[in-house]
Design a protein that fits this description.
Blueprint lengths: L3 H14 L8 H7 L4 H4 L4 H9 L7 E5 L5 H9 L4 E6 L2 H10 L5 E5 L12 E7 L7 H14 E11 L5 H17 L16 H10 L2 E8 L3 E7 L3
Parallel strand pairs: 1-2, 1-4, 2-3, 4-5
Antiparallel strand pairs: 5-7, 6-7
Helix pairs in contact: 1-8, 4-5, 7-9
This protein binds S-adenosylmethionine (SAM).
Length: about 230
């Protein structure tokens, strides 16, 4: 097990080694890695199982943001195959794989940007997302969390599984490099690129609470999992 100091040293080294690798547009990044995507993500096996266990059993109608090939849904449907899911993802190839795996399920694929997609009002028992939101700055996530809040039914849950920075230093380092690289390559503001810019737990929690959620549970193990309830603002 690495110490925080060793982890940060390794991260800094990796950022130096990959400094000349061009940033890839988000959907193309995932499209280009489709063939071995699920194998790569198998390191999160334990977290996917835990994530599925944390979805309350009464949830029947779920919105999954950045659903990809549906690794979290594999486990959720195993528990309850009747759950109705709408899955939003930018990458058509990832959605096609999900539909292929789960042609017998009640699933609506939406190939769209979740910042633009209309989630509706008081529609969902649960809104979930696994390993997707850490690609975006807090300024953008703020509006997304409010949109998730409005779209949930009273007492609905928002369950977030994501990469959380271990400390302020990791958060600041990645954000600085991300902004520099975008600037160097003259990438327009509305173009999403694949680069990890996680918040630390305190900042992620603040952002979620600002949207009105009550944070009920935090599991900070492999992937962090945060269970939030729609409460009174
Ligand atoms: C690391 S994958 C996680 C996929 C899936 N949740 C899983 O755990 O296997 C991140 C996913 O988020 C999607 N994504 C990223 N930004 C998005 C956006 N703005 N709107 C919709 N999907 C997005 C990507 O296309 C990708 O499929």
């Amino acid at each position: 097990m690495k110490t925080q100091k060793e982890y940060l040293q390794g991260l800094r080294q990796w950022l130096c080694d990959t400094a000349d690798v061009p940033l890839e547009e988000m959907a193309s990044f995932f499209d280009n890695r489709l063939s071995d995507y699920e194998e790569r993500m198998s390191v999160w096996e334990k977290s996917y199982k835990l994530f599925a266990q944390l979805i309350p059993s009464e949830c029947q109608k779920i919105l999954d943001l950045g659903c990809g090939t549906g690794l979290e849904l594999d486990r959720i449907w195993k528990k309850n195959p009747d759950i109705e899911v709408t899955g939003v993802d930018l990458c058509q190839g990832m959605l096609e794989k999900l539909v292929e795996k789960h042609s017998d399920k009640r699933f609506t694929p939406v190939c769209q940007d979740y910042f633009k997609y209309d989630f509706g009002n008081e529609q969902w028992d649960a809104v979930i997302s696994f390993e997707s939101f850490h690609h975006f700055l807090p300024e953008r996530k703020k509006g997304l969390y409010s949109k998730i809040y409005s779209s949930l039914r009273t007492d609905g849950v928002f369950v977030l599984g994501d990469y959380i920075a271990c400390c302020d230093e990791e958060e600041e380092l990645l954000r600085t490099v991300y902004l520099e690289r975008r600037k160097q390559s003259d990438i327009p503001d509305d173009c999403f690129v694949h680069f990890d810019i996680p918040l630390n737990m305190e900042h992620e929690k603040d952002l979620i609470e600002e949207a009105g959620f009550a944070v009920e549970k935090i599991l900070d193990e492999d992937a962090a999992i945060i269970v939030c309830r729609k409460g009174g603002k």
